[in-house]
Write a structure and sequence with these properties.
493 residues, 5-stranded mixed β-sheet, elongated, mainly beta
Length: 493
């Protein structure tokens, strides 16, 4: 990996040793009428053509050799024989591209003490819709959140395993970087927030970065949870006075709540804040604003303000909307409720509209909005044409399934889940077809999955797709953050 060359060389050495130690041919295997125990669980998943190879480890106890054959329904075959299933990147890309809209069949055989066992074949489906994005951005952070410690925003090339930091807080000690987003996966327009002694909100357009004041009297809090208007002319933000508490029971760890929160729209060209009392109310907490794909509606979540922290479990957010005129830069005159989660005794968080305008994907939890530590957190899908919402059963698990974003063609979703061990959040990708049918998600591929994920001490959160590599000078950014030179923002005149 680019950010850890020692681990990269170790991975290469381990793989080389494993491959060299095992080159036996499969002879008279005994059939085992069960799927093979593998890590990650790639059995029956749907993938895009051109994604990094789905290398996997055998998880069924000690063995001497692993033999894997992958055959394409439309032709093509790959073979791996060694200590784990490893596939050549170019050959994998060719096989998946040739089998768009078809199926790969995987045969797994394991040798123990000279005897072979063959497990039931399993399918991997290659979607007809590709994943047009170059890669992902996400934050890597220690799972405790008690201190900023070591964290950063990273990016990953989805066609291979290359990962690198966009910005890391070792550049400015004590800095916390979060709340990053690109405009409809285009990193030429990007924003992220910096917390700490050198707080700021960075907005990058056309390769030029501006560092805005993190707080001012007009807003009453920081500029967080950003979302771009599709035109690039505006960016919606929330302004929150956030607090963090810790549970004393073993199955609940951290709770985040806001003493207050409001939403507004920012014009980066004029440095003006567009606000309205209709979305900046005293008794309600408006949060997490997102624009519709046509830019004429602003979705957001809101709940009645509670007495925190005593009544944090009474914090129940609903999904609302208000019209927005991008030509005049003004809000509409009324707010509509689109999904009443409170009526269900639940709370809605992290709304994200699909770019084709069909759906809003959100997370449903028992209370609050910081869903990543809520084990009951599930993904739900709201059909904007019918107004009906339902849990996405194919994506949900018994652990927290949370932060998510859409690909530009609205056929792919990336989200975080703690389904692996309940402690660390990992990144999963999932397919949804034109009829809204969701497919089984798959863990973000790694060259050696066990080694990568077992060695990682970080959780992954706030993921998003990017059309291209983020072109960002982290050295200039570090100097800008440390300088405290900030662009002031003011009210719209």
């Amino acid at each position: 990996m680019k950010n850890n060359s020692m681990l990269t060389w170790l991975a290469v050495a381990v793989l080389a040793a494993a491959l060299a130690a095992c080159t036996q041919k499969v002879v008279n295997p005994e059939r085992q009428a069960t799927p093979p125990p593998i890590y990650p669980d790639y059995i029956g998943v749907t993938i895009p053509a051109g994604v990094a190879p789905l290398n996997f480890n055998f998880a069924g106890g000690p063995f001497d050799c692993l033999d894997v054959v992958v055959r394409g329904e439309k032709g093509g075959e790959l073979h791996s024989n060694g200590g784990m299933a490893v596939f050549d990147i170019d050959e994998w890309h060719a096989l998946t591209e040739a089998n768009r809209g078809a199926q790969l069949t995987v045969t797994v055989c394991v040798e123990r003490e000279g005897k072979w066992t063959q497990y039931d074949d399993f399918p991997i489906h290659v979607a007809s819709h590709g994943l047009e994005e170059w890669g992902l951005t996400y934050r890597r952070v220690a799972p405790g959140y008690e201190t900023y410690s070591h964290m950063g925003i990273y990016q990953r090339d989805l066609s291979n395993y290359d990962e690198e930091a966009v910005i890391d807080n070792t550049e400015v000690p004590g800095m916390c970087v979060n709340c990053h987003t690109a405009n409809r996966t285009n990193p030429e327009q990007m924003v992220f927030h910096v917390r700490g002694d050198h707080g700021a909100t960075m907005i990058q357009r056309g390769g030029q970065a501006e560092w805005l004041q993190a707080k001012n009297e007009l807003l009453g809090g920081s500029m967080v949870y950003p979302y771009w208007h599709p035109s690039g002319k505006y960016c919606a933000f929330s302004t929150n006075q956030t607090r963090q508490g810790f549970h004393v029971v073993h199955d609940e760890r951290i709770e985040v709540f806001d003493l207050s929160s409001d939403i507004f729209v920012y014009n980066p060209e004029t440095h003006e804040v567009i606000s309205d009392t209709i979305v900046m109310t005293k008794d309600w907490s408006e949060n997490c604003p997102v624009f519709s794909p046509d830019g004429r509606t602003l979705y957001f979540m809101t709940c009645r303000q509670q007495d925190y922290p005593a009544h944090y479990k009474d914090e129940k957010y609903n999904l609302c909307s208000i019209s927005f005129d991008p030509d005049k830069g003004v809000f509409g005159d009324h707010v509509d409720t689109l999904f009443n989660a409170a009526a269900m005794g639940k709370s809605l968080t992290w709304p994200r509209p699909s770019y084709d305008g069909k759906y809003i994907l959100f997370t449903l939890i028992d209370y609050g909005y910081f869903s990543i530590w809520h084990e009951e957190a599930d993904q739900w899908l709201l059909d904007l044409a019918t107004g009906e919402a339902h849990p996405v059963d194919a994506w949900n698990s018994r652990r927290a399934d949370s932060y998510h974003n859409w690909s530009d063609n609205s056929r792919w979703v990336v989200f975080t889940s703690r389904r692996g061990d309940g402690l660390y959040s990992r990144l999963y990708l999932a397919y949804i077809d034109e009829q809204g049918k969701a497919s089984k998600p798959f863990l973000l591929p790694q060259r050696n999955p066990w080694e990568y994920y077992d060695a990682s001490l970080y959780s992954f959160n706030t993921p998003d797709f990017t059309k291209s590599r983020v072109d960002f000078d982290h050295r200039d950014a570090a100097q800008a953050i440390a300088s405290d030179k900030r662009v002031p923002t003011g009210a719209k005149k």
